[in-house]
Amino acid sequence: MPRRRPVCRINGVNKELPDGDTLPCNQFFTGTATLPTLSALGLAGKTTFDVVPRVTGDALAVGDAISVTPGAALQAGLNIAYAIVVAANRVEVGMSSTLAIAAGSMPFTVIKFT
Predict the structure, then answer these.
(1) Pairwise CA distance, residues 74 & 114, whole Å
(2) pTM of whole model > 0.85?
């Protein structure tokens, strides 16, 4: 049985995606970061960690648009300020705090928008 191509809506009609066309899809990565100690109100810190793709062959590169999601609730007072790709499959997450925060580790999911 031949493999079916993805179905999409083209000019208001559901059709198989034409040969040579591709659909963009997000790529997912996971990694564990060491959260910094932020010992006073209003301090900022950052953590850098390596990520592993969910699908072999996917990769992050500097400049890719990403979003990060923590694997559990952040400590009270801890906020994610930014997330950037700093090297191949390496992410930096900036954080700020409104309370003193103890160091710890946190799993993250990183989504690359394509």
Answers:
(1) 27
(2) no
